[in-house]
Structures are given as C-alpha cells and as structure tokens.
C-alpha cells in the first residue's frame, strides 16, 4: 500500500491526535469518572425493564462525591495542576474566590458536612478535572453522551408504550429535552463519520440511516413539550447561522432582523394576549423577584448553595402560590445566574461569570479557526444550549445535564487558559509516600469510600421507608427504615419524611419533635416544606402553645396565603388568650379562602386534605357540594 493511501486527511479524523506524553493511567481516571457519573441513580437505568417505585431515590454517587473524586484525580496530577494555576493568574484568582466562599460557608453555616463542601466545590472541581485531561475527555465524553441518549431512548419509548409519565432518563420533560439537544448532534456526527468515512457508504444510504436516530430524537423532543428546549434550539440555530455565515454575515443579519420584525408583528396582532397570559401564569417571574430580594439582603458571599431553599422560603410572595405549578419547596429560582448570585454572593457571581463567559467569548472570537474542528463546535453549541435552557430551568443543576455542562465547560477552560509549556519544568522526585500527589489523595479516597457507603446505605433505607409509607401504608415499618437512613446520612429529605411520618402517620409528637430538632440543628434546612407548621402543630398537641407560637408564625411567613397555617396560628392564639392577634389571624385566613375562590364552609375540607390548600382547583366539585 502506498504512503498516500495510508495517510488519512485531517479533515476526516474523528478526534485530534493524542500527545505522545499522555500516560496510560489517565485513561483509567477518565473512564472511572464517567462510570461514576453514570451511577447517580443505578436503579433508574433498569427502570424500563421492571417497575421500580422511587427508583431515583436510591443513589450511589452524588454531586458532592463526584466532586471529591474529581478533586482526588486533580491532585494525582499535581505537577500539571500547579503549572496551570501558577501560569494563569486570572483563572486562579476566580477559582480561589469560589473556593474561599465555599470554605467560609462550610465553617460558619449550621449543618454543613464535608459532602456539602464538596458539593459547593463541584462548580470548579469537575471542570478543572476535564481541563487537565481534555485530550482524553474529547474522546470519551461523546460516547458517554451517546450512551445516555440510548438509555433515554429506551426509557422514553417504553414510557410512551406503557402510558407512563413521559420523563425519560432525567425524570423530567424539560431536562430530557436538554439531554436530547446535547447528545443528538454528537450521535449524528459519530454515525456520519463511521458510515461515510469508514464504511464508505453512499450519500443517499448514509442520509437514510441517519434519518432514523434523528427522527427518533425529534419525535422525543416534540413530545417533551419544553418551551425552554425550543428556545435553546432557536438561540443555537440563530447563533450557528452567524457562526458559519462568514462573508455573508451582513446578509444573514438582515434576514434575522426581517424575521424578528415579522415575528414581533405577528405577536402584536395575534399572540399578545396569549403571551401575556402565559407570562402571568408562569412561576418564574415571582421566583426571580424573590431571589433578587434575597441577593440584596446577602450581597457579599450569599447564603450558601445548601441553604438556598431554607433562606428563600420567606421570599416567596403570595403571587407565587397562586400559580398552578407552585410547590411547597423551592430549591432553585429557575435561573442559573440568579442561583449562583444567591448562593455565592456577588463576589462569587463575578468570579463564576468570568469562568463561564470569557472562554465562550474567546471561542466565538476565534470561530474561523474552530470551524475546522467540528467536535469542538458541537461542544460549543451543546454548552450554549444548556446555558440558554438553564436561564429558565434546572438543567445545570440536575443529573445528567449538570455533569455534562461542567465537563463541557472544562474543554473551554483548556482553550482559554492552556497549561504553560512544560519544557523548562524541573520535577524533583521524592519517595513515594512523601509525594504530594499521593498523600492527600489517599486520605480523600478513604473519605470518598465512606461517603459512598453512607449514601448508598442511607438512600437504600430511605427508599424502603417510602415504599412502606406510600405503597404498603405501613407507617411503623416506614419509621424503622427512616431511622436507619438517618443513622447513615442526615440528609434533609429523609429527616423530613421521618418527621411527617411520625407526626401524621404514627401520631407520635415526641418522635416528630425529635426529627424536627435534627432538621433544624443538623442539616442546613431550617425551613423545609411545612416543617415549621408541623412543629407548631405537635407542640400544640402537647399543650406547649407558647413554644409553638414562633414556629406557626414562621409557617405563615413562608406560606403567606396558606389557609392551614393561619388556622393553626388562630387556634394557638385563642388558647393563649391573644384575642386581638387571633382576630387578625382569622381575618387573614378568610382572606386566603377568598383569594383561592373558597368560602368558610370549605375550611373543614381543606384542613382534612392540606393538598387542597396549595392546589384548591383540584377540589372535586362533588366534594364541595357534599360538604355543603
């Protein structure tokens, strides 16, 4: 065979050439990390094959433990890590700012465990690990995303076939749409390369084969009915036009302006009322307003990511609870930048903004160079789609799109802040047990093993407790499992489930108040769901009405139009002889009934089923007639 035949043009290479200095050990680190990233919810992978209630409760890895794994692998690459941080000062200052803010929250906040510290550091540890190993991740990440695409396809089709909730692998329609936007282009690119460049198939046959996965993805994407997904697709489509327009960029800009005017005119004539109605019904505007208020009250370093839900509870307005999709818990404002600003303060917000936007702007500025690197272009638009969608949803905070986004960001960190030349570096080897690349990682590895064991055992017992409580209706058995779960890991959700089970299922106020204390003092969540209302209710049941008063006051502050909260506060104040305050609480309760289209005759129905308090439109009309 001639030398010309043996050479493959660079334009048909799937991946760039690997540097000759990449040690084989690094492959194992990358593969182990991606395998760990797939094991967030092990049972969910087998969900299409069997009915497994609460499959996403059982966890193995969490964002905190995956972050710790990334930190261990970064420290094992100690020399290159030092070169990167010492050679890129702006990059290092931004990382240091976020690290110090996370460490401050860990030291000062109540209930912040080592796992929560790792969670706070996940925003920098996971991209940093990818940045240090980008030449390997560029080969592995596409196949990981294709693997997720296959799992999502299997689950999505079986859910449609079985008439189940169409949530796909991520367990949510919006997050599934984001996953499809990220993984489908990489799948099409890989298949095109194999079919066209390797198998040498004809154009028509290649396009016919590619039509199948593309059609399936479009079908699933359409069934997701995700407005955020369509918006992200539109933004990426427009920017892709500018990216590849070249010398025709002025003509393309004119076309986009014309389309924009036509769309604006159509909305003014036909769709203005519909658009205004959708905005009025959406939960995001009151959430964003409340988050801005939270940021204004904690501008410097924020409230801490793990404390956001607890601190934000009092910033939700009554307007929010009038939305049909309002929830008792709010752990994210549905906007990534507001979430970062509230969690890490304005200092962390500016540091994260530099780490996030500077590499993207630099990539866009050098777009003529990157047009010859199709894989990097796909990574760019995949991350852009996630970032756009993340302005309106939780795709940057929920598995698997959160991990995909952080890994994609690591590629652009490597482009914007490359590791300086290693030629002049002198490495003085020390005995094995005295090398910094092994000492600290060895201790962290033991911590990781303990963290994984506690997560798996705690979530296993928690899932069993939910099965006993929700499916088997065995509250006593559920209490035993919840207690075992809390023994392994004091997470807010298991503690709250044990709390409500003891309060409502077992009618055991002493046990319920014990869990209430654990939730307040040993987790970051002083406000979690209706924990204040349940605490006040149980204290009142023990005739400790004076102690119950501040908890009931917190309940109505967290749920300003909550009928049950105002009713319990009214009863408590009446028992204490606070007639004037009780009358004010009664007026507030009647006002809440009126706001929700109910009357005082409906009060007993709401008290019997508190779910109707949050969603009064779900009250069956025949139930109201029967009650009347």
Description:
Among the domains are: 140-211, no CATH class; 552-628, no CATH class. The model is unreliable at 1-11 and 423-434 (pLDDT under 50). The N and C termini lie far apart (92 Å). The chain is mainly α and 628 residues long. Helix 9 (173-198) runs antiparallel to helix 10 (203-224) and helix 23 (531-541) runs antiparallel to helix 24 (545-558). It is globular. The chain has helices at residues 3-6, 25-37, 42-45, 63-76, 78-87, 89-108, 114-132, 134-162, 173-198, 203-224, 227-245, 249-281, 284-297, 308-312, 336-365, 367-370, 374-390, 401-416, 436-471, 475-488, 492-505, 509-521, 531-541, 545-558, 563-575, 579-595, 603-608, 611-614, 621-627. Helix content is 71%, strand content 0%. It contains 29 helices and no strands.
Give a summary of the structure in a few sentences.
By secondary structure, the chain is mainly alpha-helical. 71% of the residues lie in helices and 0% in strands.
Keywords:
628 residues, 71% helix, disordered N terminus, single chain, mainly alpha
């Amino acid at each position: 065979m001639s030398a010309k035949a043996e050479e493959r043009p660079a334009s048909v290479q799937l991946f760039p050439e690997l540097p000759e200095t990449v040690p084989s050990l690094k492959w194992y680190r990358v593969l182990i990390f991606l395998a760990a990233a797939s094991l967030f919810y092990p049972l969910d992978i087998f969900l299409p094959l069997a009915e497994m209630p609460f499959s996403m409760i059982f966890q193995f890895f969490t964002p905190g433990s995956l972050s710790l794994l990334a930190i261990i692998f970064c420290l094992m690459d100690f020399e290159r890590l030092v070169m990167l941080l010492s050679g890129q000062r702006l990059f290092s200052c931004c990382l240091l700012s976020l690290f110090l803010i996370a460490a401050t929250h860990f030291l000062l906040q109540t209930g912040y465990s080592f796992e929560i510290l790792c969670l706070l550091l996940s925003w920098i540890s996971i991209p940093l690990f990818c940045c240090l190993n980008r030449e390997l991740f560029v080969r592995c990440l596409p196949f990981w995303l294709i693997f997720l695409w296959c799992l999502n396809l299997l689950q999505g089709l079986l859910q449609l076939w079985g008439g189940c909730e169409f949530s796909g692998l991520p367990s949510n329609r919006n997050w599934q749409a984001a996953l499809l936007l990220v993984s489908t282009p990489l799948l099409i690119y890989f298949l095109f390369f194999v079919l066209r460049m390797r198998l040498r198939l004809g154009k028509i046959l290649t396009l016919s084969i590619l039509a199948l996965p593309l059609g399936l993805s479009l079908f699933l994407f359409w069934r997701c009915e995700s407005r955020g997904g369509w918006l992200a697709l539109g933004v990426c489509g427009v920017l892709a036009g500018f990216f590849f327009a070249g010398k025709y960029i002025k003509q393309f800009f004119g076309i986009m302006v014309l389309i924009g005017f036509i769309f604006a005119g159509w909305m003014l004539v036909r769709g203005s009322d519909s658009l205004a109605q959708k905005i009025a019904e959406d939960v995001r505007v009151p959430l964003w307003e409340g988050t801005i208020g939270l940021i204004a009250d904690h501008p410097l370093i924020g409230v801490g990511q793990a404390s956001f839900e607890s601190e934000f509870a009092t910033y939700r307005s009554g307007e929010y609870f009038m939305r049909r999709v309002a929830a008792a818990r709010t752990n994210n404002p549905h906007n990534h930048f507001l979430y970062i600003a509230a969690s890490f303060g304005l200092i962390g917000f500016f540091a994260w903004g530099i780490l996030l936007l500077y590499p993207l702007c630099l990539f866009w500025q050098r777009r003529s160079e990157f047009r010859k690197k199709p894989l990097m272009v796909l990574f760019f638009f995949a991350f852009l789609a996630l970032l756009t969608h993340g302005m309106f949803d939780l795709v940057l905070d929920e598995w698997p799109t959160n991990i995909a986004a952080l890994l994609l960001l690591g590629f652009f960190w490597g482009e914007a802040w490359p590791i300086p030349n290693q030629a002049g570096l002198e490495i003085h080897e020390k005995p094995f047990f005295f090398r910094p690349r092994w000492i600290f990682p060895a201790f962290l590895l033991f911590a990781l093993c303990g963290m994984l064991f506690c997560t798996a055992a705690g979530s296993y017992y928690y899932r069993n407790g939910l099965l006993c409580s929700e499916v088997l209706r065995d509250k006593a058995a559920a209490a035993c499992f919840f207690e075992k779960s809390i023994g392994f890991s004091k997470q807010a959700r298991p503690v709250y489930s044990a709390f409500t089970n003891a309060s409502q299922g077992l009618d055991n106020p002493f046990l319920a108040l014990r869990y209430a204390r654990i939730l307040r003092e040993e987790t970051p969540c002083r406000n979690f769901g209706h924990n204040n209302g349940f605490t006040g209710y149980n204290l009142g049941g023990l005739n400790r009405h004076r102690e119950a008063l501040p908890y009931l006051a917190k309940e109505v502050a967290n749920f300003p139009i909550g009928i049950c909260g105002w009713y319990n506060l009214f009863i408590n104040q009446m028992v204490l002889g606070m007639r004037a305050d009780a009358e004010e609480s009664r007026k507030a309760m009647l006002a809440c009934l009126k706001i929700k289209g109910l009357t005082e005759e409906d009060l007993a129905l709401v008290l019997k089923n508190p779910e109707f308090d949050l969603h009064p439109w779900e009250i069956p009309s025949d139930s109201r007639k029967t009650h009347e």
